[in-house]
Amino acid sequence: MKNLFKTSAMALMATLMMGASASAFAHKVGLVDMQSIYGKLPQMAEIEQTLKSEFAERRQELEKLQGDLRFEAEKFQRESATMSEEQQNALRKKIQTMQKALADKGRPLEQEIKARQNQELAKVQKLIIDAIEEVAKKGKYDEVRVKDTTIYFNPDKVSDLSDKIVEVVSKK
């Protein structure tokens, strides 16, 4: 009886192990390299161009202010030895006023640019996620992982789907 119990338990264990290993073989995993995908998408160049043109006028204004500030600072360094105390103070005040104006205009512009970048990136990210789901369903993948968060994978058993994702997103 004891021997029969052991044999039955071993047979059951072997069956479970075979079932687990069979399902492990059936598990199809895909991998995506997000950095590579973002780098290859034509939408990213379009976003960059759109943001450049959208904020070009305000950036030029800041660059002009920076140039004026640099000129006044260099002027102060060159001519401060020959200036009166009153002229030095006036130029210092002018430089400080320009620095404050640059900071007051620069910070909000930088924040606005970042907010717009995030909006546009969110749109592209949604396209990428939709494309990953589409490719995974078509290819009957059980799981798709991000390459950067995966410590190890066997390249013979895991498919890199990055190029397929780029292809799908590029068409949209």
Automatic annotation (TrEMBL):
Transmembrane segments: none
Signal found in the keyword field: yes
Stretches of the chain forming a coiled coil according to its record: none
Entry's Gene Ontology BP terms: protein stabilization
Stretch forming the signal peptide: 1-26
UniProt cross-references to InterPro entries, sorted A to Z: Chaperone_Skp (IPR005632), Skp_dom_sf (IPR024930)
SUPFAM superfamilies (UniProt xref): OmpH-like
A cellular-component GO term for this protein: cytosol
GO molecular function (one): unfolded protein binding
Short name of any one Pfam family annotated for the protein: OmpH
Keyword Signal: yes
Keywords of the record: Signal
Protein family (similarity comment): Belongs to the Skp family.
Protein name (Swiss-Prot/TrEMBL): Molecular chaperone
Organism field: Pseudoalteromonas rubra
